[in-house]
């Protein structure tokens, strides 16, 4: 029956992990994976998450189905975290939201909703490059995917002129995907002033902004600061779609906790949108999983746990920032590695686009047992006090050839 099914290509990031696992050298480092690692290179379960789980266990909560749109005690608080307590659409009860299978699920629900109900366009513009799963998610949702310039290889920074030109030339009312903060894979974000200009262009062209916020709090260590772009757009009167993930900022990766939301113009319109979101979710997975949403809801709903969680997110963000500083100093001052490495420090979030070329990344894997994606992206979280000098020495050798 399946004799005509062709073998598909392997996932590029999971391929890195497989090569890493097969390597027996004790010095090996995996910088491909997009999950936080602590100072000892180990996965990190947040203490606030452990406390929330104790509270949930003690409550002897049942395991009944959630409603189609998820756990209300979680969804309300997740929307508040993103939009801010003083957000007009939140206060006026006109945000439609539904719990999702983490950020990916939120993007997929959003893609499907826009493909079915957005009346003006079926085209979504993604930054080039973008997270590798964006194209398949939106294509499989029924949208046509196009790109707008984002990254400038020469400066290892934002191609702001190219970005503006491409958005100005996009057909009116197209959908545009924006990484709310900590752009993956480049680690390059617009400044607040540049965001304000992007908002103006979206207004001029009537572009519909779809924010992907997978790293709130993880970029700067401050959840409000990381929500600046989203909140600015909403304040400027844009209607937006938003995909949120609690994988990184609460370390709830495998629990699959997320939220899809849309701002609407009235509570009455919100109710109609809600009904259509349910019609999309019900035949896909009926209703979302309960445990992770309870954890996130418990943390967001308890002033004490919330404060603790905020400091734990800041701890993760700051450890990454300290690794950026250390890597920059080691390359530039200690090893005098040829090239300009300032972008290591100016980039933000979990990832850094190092500027290393495919042959250099290959040499790092073969000679130094250091693994990363072929585009030179590294997860800063994979670096720690125990391996960062070894890593810098490997980069230095690869660059010198
Ligand atoms: N968007 C971006 C930009 C991401 O980097 C990720 C995680 N790698 C996601 C969405 C979704 O991840 P998840 O489904 O695990 O929340």
Automatic annotation (TrEMBL):
Keywords on record: Aminotransferase, Pyridoxal phosphate, Transferase
PROSITE patterns, alphabetized: AA_TRANSFER_CLASS_1
Keyword presence, Transferase: yes
A molecular function (GO) term: L-aspartate:2-oxoglutarate aminotransferase activity
Reactions catalysed, as given in the entry: L-aspartate + 2-oxoglutarate = oxaloacetate + L-glutamate
GO biological process, one term: L-aspartate catabolic process
Cofactor: pyridoxal 5'-phosphate
GO cellular component annotations of the record: mitochondrion
Aminotransferase class I/classII large domain span: 27-393
Enzyme Commission number(s) of this protein: 2.6.1.1
Top-rank EC class of the record's enzyme: transferase
Other remarks on this protein: In eukaryotes there are cytoplasmic, mitochondrial and chloroplastic isozymes.
UniProt similarity note: Belongs to the class-I pyridoxal-phosphate-dependent aminotransferase family.
Protein name: Aspartate aminotransferase
Organism: Botryobasidium botryosum (strain FD-172 SS1)
